[in-house]
């Protein structure tokens, strides 16, 4: 897998957080996106970093803070400087993730200070750095031209982060070019070219070798074509092909 130039800088920031936490105070960095979070997990495992944790405000969050804690402090959820904010609006007003993110950025908030944005019908719950929550509550009154009412926290279940469609296929093998060809309905030759051109990612890391293997649980992204999660790889069909099942992001 191809290493991105920003990975070295990210790892340096994470190591700094770990080093500074030894002074007796927890240190946080983020919000990290999914690729950065995966890089943080690999770094923590590779170097056995002590007392670190990723948390985004709820179980399964995609954008998360990296927390480095001193030895005497338990890395609990409540220790992370994350606030949840609920935006209520009329159900007939169709607002999108882009509407909310654009409004927050236009308010002068940096992208790294905003976590997941979960948009539902008449309600959106988003997560942000705790130190900016008060500012947003006092300043943001409209999203995408629609009046909203912001309150701290949330009640009831969170809106669903994504919608999916079931997807399945039978492929020659667990090579990424085979799976991509089936996923985007193209030939294996063209799928291999997509891979070689750097347009395919497995778990947020660019792959350039068509024979790279895919496994259960992998997330596959094909630029301009879509994103997929592989829930099952195998068994073989009666014709000797490999069955794969998963979900396509809608």
**Terminal residue distance:** 26 Å
Order of helices and strands: HEHEEEHEEHEEEEHHEEEEE
Radius of gyration from the alpha-carbon trace, in angstroms: 21 Å
| Strand adjacency order, main sheet | 10-15-14-13-11-12
- The number of distinct helices, counting runs of at least 4 residues, comes to 6
Strand content: 25-35%
Give start-end ranges of low-pLDDT stretches: none
**What's the overall geometry?**
globular
Give the overall pLDDT as a whole number.
92
Give the helix level as a range of percent: 25-40%
Number of strands: 15
Largest sheet geometry: 6 strands, antiparallel
Structural class: alpha+beta
Structure in words:
- The chain has 250 residues and is α+β, with helices and mostly antiparallel strands.
- Helix content is 26%, strand content 32%.
- It has six helices and 15 strands.
- It has helices at residues 6-21, 34-46, 97-106, 130-139, 176-183, 188-196; strands at 27-32, 52-55, 64-68, 82-88, 114-119, 123-129, 142-143, 146-147, 149-152, 164-171, 200-202, 205-206, 219-222, 226-236, 242-249.
- It has a six-stranded antiparallel beta sheet.
- Helix 1 crosses helix 2 and helix 5 (176-183) packs across helix 6.
- It starts with 5 loop residues before the first helix and ends with a strand.
């Amino acid at each position: 897998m191809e290493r991105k130039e920003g990975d070295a800088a990210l790892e340096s920031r994470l190591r700094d957080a770990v080093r500074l936490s030894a002074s007796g105070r927890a240190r946080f960095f983020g919000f990290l996106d999914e690729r950065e979070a995966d890089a943080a997990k690999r770094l923590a495992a590779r170097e056995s970093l002590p007392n670190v944790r990723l948390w985004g405000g709820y179980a399964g969050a995609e954008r998360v803070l990296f927390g480095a804690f001193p030895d005497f402090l338990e890395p609990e959820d409540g220790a992370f400087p994350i606030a949840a904010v609920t935006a209520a609006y009329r159900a007939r007003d169709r607002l999108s993730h882009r509407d909310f993110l654009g409004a927050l950025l236009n308010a002068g908030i940096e992208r790294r200070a905003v976590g997941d944005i979960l948009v539902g019908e008449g309600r959106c719950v988003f997560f942000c750095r705790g130190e900016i929550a008060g500012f947003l509550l006092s300043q943001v009154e409209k999203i995408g031209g629609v009046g909203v009412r912001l309150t701290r926290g949330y009640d009831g279940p969170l809106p669903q982060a994504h919608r999916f469609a079931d997807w399945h296929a039978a492929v020659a093998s667990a090579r990424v070019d085979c799976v991509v060809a089936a996923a985007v309905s193209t030939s294996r030759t063209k799928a291999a070219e997509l891979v070689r051109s750097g347009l395919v990612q497995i778990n947020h890391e660019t792959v350039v070798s068509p024979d790279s293997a895919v496994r259960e649980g992998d997330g596959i992204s094909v630029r301009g074509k879509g994103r997929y999660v592989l829930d099952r790889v195998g068994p073989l069909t009666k014709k000797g092909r490999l069955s794969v099942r998963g979900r396509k992001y809608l």
